[in-house]
Amino acid sequence: MGSLDETCASLRAQITATEAQLAGLKRDLANAEQAAQGETATTAEIQHEDHNGEGRRWPLLQEEYKRYGRQMIVSQVGLKGQLKLRSAKVLLVGAGGLGCPAAQYLAGAGVGTIGLIDGDTVEVSNLHRQVLHRTKNVGKYKVDSAIESLRELNPHPTYIAHRTHLTPEAAPAVFQDYDLILDCTDNPATRYLISDTAVLLGKPLVSASALRTEGQLMVLNNPPRAPGDKTGGPCYRCVFPKPPPADSVVSCADGGILGPVVGTMGVLQALEAIKVITAPEIDAASDVTTAHPRDPPSLHIFSAYSSPLVRTIRLRSRRANCAVCSAEATVTLDTIKSGSTDYVFFCGSASLPSLLGPEERISAREYSERHSTVTSDSSRLYTIIDVRDEAQFGICSLDNSINIPISKILSSGHSAGSQGADNEQQAAQIPSWLPSEVASSESTNPIYVVCRLGNDSQIVVKKMKELGLDQHGKRFIGDIRGGLRSWKEQVDSSFPEY
Amino acid sequence: MADTSNVAQGEFPVPITVEFTGGLELLFGNERKHKIVLPARLEDGSRPNISYLLKYLVDNLMKDQRIDMFIMEDNVRPGILVLINDADWELEGEETYELQQGDNIVFVSTLHGG
């Protein structure tokens, strides 16, 4: 057995090393391809200019009339709109679930310059929704992977790769060269940074987000007017002057996301971008009332399991005391670049709970050693409660574990608590969610709590102790440190990681 | 002096619809849509407004104990939009808005994923 274990360990080490080497090779290849494509693009541009020179009567290439014909014959676009699209420069911040479909449709529509900024590399867990990335590109920069797909779709546009996360220091310089910004990111701090920079540089902003089965979409700073000009469209800060508490922000990795939901939102971003770019100019000299009225500022809410699927709500106009777009603005390009507008501080960071002492937690390995023999009796000697939600428990779970979702645990006893009556505390001692044989005051068998990463499990242990289930220390209640992720790392490498 | 038409109207209870979206429904028993009936007048004789509704929801409808996921400093927490009949509540007077029969009040938590 010992030598087999060693063989496995050695093979695992070799695989890890080879994978690292492979990732390195992929990155080198990407850089080489980028350089090569840069050269080809230059050649193509020269040819393009030659064409224009010889046939000045026709502003587009023959191939472009065919390629864009189906959208050009739509009256809202026309040749005029197509030329506007060709001269437009659009920046997408984020090349993930929103950025991929948005970039795909903008490239298809013939937007002349498309910039992508993202410092992440492609992961397998991205592929179900980030539709520009291919399985073979796992490990590659997302922007390189996306541009590779976009070039196959439409070689005409100029694609610009920014292989970095957007930082406050760099944001003004990056945004400067573009006409329109798409917020395809996944966190509040970056959303405020994008909105502030877009307002201060006078760029309209198409902002979207998605989680689980829902998505939200807004066109902000449209029309883009100088700070203090009340006729400009509201910005992200006008709608959300204060950021949400960091603990309330749920990511797609934790909350889940359906591909077509985030895809719908990305496609709608591309649509709004095309509408903004091809909108007829409002002639400043003409009477405003006769000009095309712009859509009032709106928030579109998509909900996959509701009917209607989309509802649109009217938003407020610019906030009179907005920190960015009002006459009282305190945020400027200088405060952004210098860091005195501190986005990370403004939005805070989620405090990972460290509620339990070391004596209240055991490692996955220790748990497995204590309860390694799985017999029919073993379930009576201890209880292992998995507090993930039902869907996650259904994907994979530990032997003998019972599922009591944390939402169920935290939603019990609220009414009793709010009434605060002392005599009700007795009734609250044995909560309805706990199986009676586990709750029995005679049993001192240990109770273990486990979740995905070891955060929720701590909250539940604390709650159970507050309810007195540990019989003043006679009964062990603790959690598995690091949750099922460490179970996979320390005990069972075949355990699924989702 | 009493405005009779007003009093007559005021004596009827106020049925409204409340909806939660953007994940807030998870705090309310995973139900998005709730039909509730508010009293015509409160104890002090005033009509129920949004402030009253917030308290009513926490006391009667909220299932989760994490009240600060919904209310902070006696108002909705940052990151939640309140919509009164499909318009941002800031267009309608925010928490002082007095509820009318048949109103549709939606609480939307902002999403950040992408």
What does this structure look like?
Chain A: Its main location: cytoplasm. Chain A: It is found in: Cytoplasm, Cytosol. Chain A: It is an enzyme of class 2 (transferase). Chain A: Zn(2+) binds at residues 235, 238, 322, 325. Chain A: Residues 382-496 form the Rhodanese domain. The complex is a heterodimer of chains A (498) and B (114). Chain A contains 21 helices and 13 strands. In chain A, strand 4, helix 7 (188-201) and strand 5 (205-211) form a beta-alpha-beta unit. Chain A has 2 domains: 62-281 and 295-347, 3-Layer(aba) Sandwich (Rossmann fold), CATH 3.40.50.720; 358-412 and 429-491, 3-Layer(aba) Sandwich (Oxidized Rhodanese, domain 1). In chain A, helix 4 runs parallel beside helix 5 and helix 4 crosses helix 10 (259-278). Residues 287-291 and 414-428 of chain A have low confidence and may be disordered. In chain A, the strands form 2 sheets. Chain A has an 8-stranded mixed β-sheet with strand order 3-2-1-4-5-6-7-8, with helices on both faces. With 498 residues, chain A is α/β, with parallel strands linked by helices. In chain B, the strands form 2 sheets. A 5-stranded mixed β-sheet of chain B has the order 2-1-7-5-6, with no helix packed on it. In chain B, strands 3-4 form a two-stranded antiparallel ribbon. In chain B, strand 3 (71-72) and strand 4 form a beta hairpin. By secondary structure, chain B is of the alpha+beta class. Chain B has helices at 4-10, 50-60, and strands at residues 14-21, 33-38, 71-72, 75-76, 80-84, 87-88, 104-109. Chain B has a single domain (14-109), classed as Ubiquitin-like (UB roll). Helix content of chain B is 16%, strand content 27%. Residues 1-8 of chain B have low confidence and may be disordered. Chain B starts with a helix and ends in a 5-residue tail after the last strand. The interface between A and B is large, with 53 and 35 residues.
